[in-house]
């Protein structure tokens, strides 16, 4: 696996996920930091992902806590890593009064943590090619990075990637000039919005418990800054123009979305964050070989769905790996 980032000799520490996991701080420019998480449990000697490494990018107002996803990839033969991006999860200093959780003004700035992570991964697995995975906003970041860095990944596996504004591209284009003006006028002032707790309730129903720390993944979401949303919209525009990624891409999503304010049981088997039909229409703009898999009963984070939907998602990844990686 090739990395153009700086070499690194990380100080690994035990991770909050348990004995099979370690984490290391990734120092970034400007005194910021990200966190690399590594799965150190048993890895299958063969399998459709043997000889590959996986790097997973979380979504907005999120962090990596999916130990079952790490174990799945290890069972397929891959070495698994994940990144908590700057101002997210393990990298978030909740005691800093000046911190802006999840804030970034340009998604390309995440190249710093990706390069730092890839330098470490390449030092541990120098001959293994990379499968880059991402959820929601992390899926957008992963796709944009792969588009700017041809030849550096073997495949992309995207979990409900935020490829386009959920209302539609025309609304995004209408809003963008106002966002630019608002960002310049009041960069430090987030929008006064509060999201209902419906997604947390649907995860609780599907999993039987909330498998994450509410301080790091608050039900009401992080504050939404205009400059951050403008950065996401810029990413959407790039995807709309076409990324021409040459490697195989798997896009997982639910079969349906729901957009309601009040909680209902139907939310336990649907994406209530993004519009999956919009994702499906935009996904072919990613590259030459795009497989779209609609998973019945899946939530926005497909891997937090109930067991049948989760198994179906994993089965679809395995089928993708056997079709495109074992050649």
Mind explaining what this structure looks like?
The chain is an alpha/beta fold. The protein has one domain (13-324): Rossmann fold (3-Layer(aba) Sandwich), CATH 3.40.50. Helices cover 31% and strands 17% of the residues. It contains eight helices and nine strands. It has helices at 67-75, 111-124, 137-148, 169-185, 198-207, 226-241, 276-282, 307-324, and strands spanning 13-15, 18-27, 33-39, 52-57, 79-84, 129-135, 155-159, 249-254, 290-295. It has a nine-stranded mixed sheet, sandwiched between helices. A hairpin with a 5-residue loop joins strand 2 and strand 3 (33-39). Helix 3 packs across helix 6 (226-241) and helix 4 runs antiparallel to helix 6 (226-241). The protein is globular and about 55 Å long. The relative contact order is 0.14.
Task: Tell me the layout of helices and strands.
Layout: E1 13-15, E2 18-27, E3 33-39, E4 52-57, H1 67-75, E5 79-84, H2 111-124, E6 129-135, H3 137-148, E7 155-159, H4 169-185, H5 198-207, H6 226-241, E8 249-254, H7 276-282, E9 290-295, H8 307-324
Parallel strand pairs: 4-5, 4-6, 6-7, 7-8, 8-9
Antiparallel strand pairs: 1-2, 2-3, 3-5
